[in-house]
């Protein structure tokens, strides 16, 4: 069995920032990701990010990814990268079971950081399993990472930031966005993103949802309808749109399966996306020496994931016996950054979640 | 089905990669996953549901949902959305749960 | 209403313009950021300290039109593409809108100009397309329209490939 000082699972914004802090502090890092390249979902974020300069605001996600990855290259053998590697099992003694290209192996870690991210949710409607019904983030991957069009005419379902941003990015790829429907009475993402697609001609229809997708082998059309105040469809309000793609953007669910295998306690907190790990202020889970950061801890923006990554990196360093006294001010500043990122009306849900966690400072 | 012009990204012409899908030769490009190459060829049905045999396509693109599982080089349940395309790969639709 | 449609109504966007119309005889940044979000590149990018958000980056930006020179740096730095540069010039309004589509419009080209709901309200002529590498692919399309559209113009319609 391989012995490793710190293993980070997931090389998205959280995992990469955790790696950066650990490497800076002198630890040997093993970074695992099931994808062929590092960066997680940053690889498809072609838009300029929000936040402040500390979280690379105004830079595009794809460029932030390059910055984060290139900051790791100077560490040579101190960093071991395992891509195309899926973690298939985890045990409470910090043994990690992996599969890479049909080869099975185990790693004994002293410390673990889980940065596994989240998966996109779906919603029930007739024919929601037809090819052509895709998660919005998946469509973003198809377009922006692989340069492949998901289809020619799209209905976007959900007005959170992902739905609004992917609608815009579909248009940038030359794809027609027929409309965006939102079941709630108001737009849930940032208004600047909504206004951006609205002035380019995309109808944003609130109190509206999908009744059914139409097609046998793949989506040919979609039927949408108005919802009444109790969120029930109104008979007679149905209309049909000719689309070959339905993008579902109705929220994310933290990927906590590995944490649960490991025996870390999870708790259902709706505001944070579902089952989330029980953590303390240091982002340590209930299993000593196992930390979590990013969307797996609770659904937020990539900017928060980067800050949490740095926090867990520093805390894991301390656990491993490295002297982090010089980083005390930095740690304080990181917690301050999180506080601002979780301020404001758009972060109300996140705050409610952290209140339940007893971690609102 | 490939994006030719993009304001932010530069999709340069890439080397072709040939593979077989249900016995037919198709072409993807270097850097594709199996699923992206199939989609670029207009193939949307990747798998089917086990009991009702309903068509299933791409869904999550992160190797999580199993909707894109196919038989690749004889190996069933291959997550084609995260498996890089390689020259000469033999890709087939999977029927049922798959046997090793 | 904007919460439901994404469209700012006149009563809302008028407040973001200078009170005194003469101020617009010089180019000025018009910021249409109606809701608090954690974001401050407009403030940090401004070389003239004309935009203030403050330590809490969730506050809405506040612009000092006396300091603003209409240079356009904030317009391509804003991740929300919520800033335009506007100026009266004789009988016309000269506007600079951020633009992130390909192909770019050409100088001299006639383009459709849309309002905040995406309706085409007039045409404009492209004076210049500013697309330097530091803008990182957010071009500024500089157009001239009849001055009557100073307030209602919100963007140019996406330009299609000429075939």
Describe the fold and architecture.
- The complex is a heterotrimer of chains A (361), B (100) and C (163).
- Chain A is of the alpha/beta class and 361 residues long.
- Chain A has nine helices and 19 strands.
- Chain A has helices at residues 13-25, 61-70, 136-145, 161-172, 191-198, 257-262, 302-319, 328-341, 348-356; strands spanning 2-9, 29-32, 79-82, 85-90, 95-100, 103-114, 118-120, 133-135, 153-157, 176-182, 203-206, 208-214, 221-226, 239-241, 245-248, 252-254, 266-269, 274-277, 290-292.
- In chain A, the strands form five sheets. In chain A, strands 1, 2, 3, 4, 5, 6 and 19 form a seven-stranded mixed beta sheet that branches. A five-stranded parallel beta sheet of chain A has the order 8-15-9-10-11.
- Chain B has one domain (16-92): Ubiquitin-like (UB roll) (Roll), CATH 3.10.20.
- Chain C is mainly beta.
- Chain C has one domain (2-156).
- The mean pLDDT of chain C is 96.
Give the helix/strand layout.
The complex is a heterotrimer of chains A (361), B (100) and C (163).
Chain A: E1 2-9, H1 13-25, E2 29-32, H2 61-70, E3 79-82, E4 85-90, E5 95-100, E6 103-114, E7 118-120, E8 133-135, H3 136-145, E9 153-157, H4 161-172, E10 176-182, H5 191-198, E11 203-206, E12 208-214, E13 221-226, E14 239-241, E15 245-248, E16 252-254, H6 257-262, E17 266-269, E18 274-277, E19 290-292, H7 302-319, H8 328-341, H9 348-356
Chain B: E1 16-21, E2 24-29, H1 34-40, E3 47-48, E4 55-56, E5 69-72, E6 75-79, E7 90-92
Parallel strand pairs in B: 1-7
Antiparallel strand pairs in B: 1-2, 3-4, 5-6, 5-7
Chain C: H1 2-5, H2 10-13, E1 28-31, H3 41-45, E2 51-52, E3 62-63, H4 73-77, E4 83-89, E5 92-99, E6 110-114, E7 120-130, E8 139-146, E9 155-156
Antiparallel strand pairs in C: 1-4, 2-3, 4-5, 5-8, 6-7, 6-9, 7-8
